[in-house]
Amino acid sequence: MTVEQDLTRTLGRWAAGSVVVGGLLAADPRTRGFGRQTAAWGAVDGAIALVGARRQAAGRSTDPRRLRRVLLVNAGLDVGYLALGAGLAGRPRWRGDGVAVLVQGAFLLWLDATAARRLRS
């Protein structure tokens, strides 16, 4: 399995879990913010994974050097998500949303950095 295939598969699984867990948690007023945010991130991640899977099924892969650059840019954005999540988590009204952004940002940073490291030439 290539790094790109592994990345797509891992992101797809994370997305599916995020949508399911987020949907369940959004139903409870005590966890609504966390659930809402988790499900929304899962939907976006799922769309990205779906596009990647379709490209791969069509026999189109991304040049490893280009993919690594994209992953490194994404890792920088992930750090921004962590900062945003921390800011939101510090506000009582947005605490659940902020914690969810922290969880999603941490996972994406791990995923992007790990895949970029695997593509290092």
What would you say this structure looks like, in words?
The protein has 121 residues and is an all-alpha fold. The protein has one domain (3-118). The protein is built from 4 helices and no strands. α3 (64-89) packs antiparallel against α4. The chain is flat and about 45 Å long.
Key features?
mainly alpha; about 120 residues; 4 helices; flat; about 85% helix; about 0% strand
Number of strands: 0
Tell me about the largest β-sheet.
Answer: none
Oligomer: single chain
Q: Cα-atom Rg, whole angstroms?
A: 15 Å
Name the beta content range: under 5%
- Secondary-structure-based class equals mainly alpha
Helix content: over 70%
What is the number of domains?
1
Mean pLDDT, all residues: 97
First-last Cα distance: 18 Å
Poorly predicted ranges: none
What characteristic shape results from the CA principal axes?
flat
User: Could you state the order of secondary-structure elements as H and E?
Assistant: HHHH
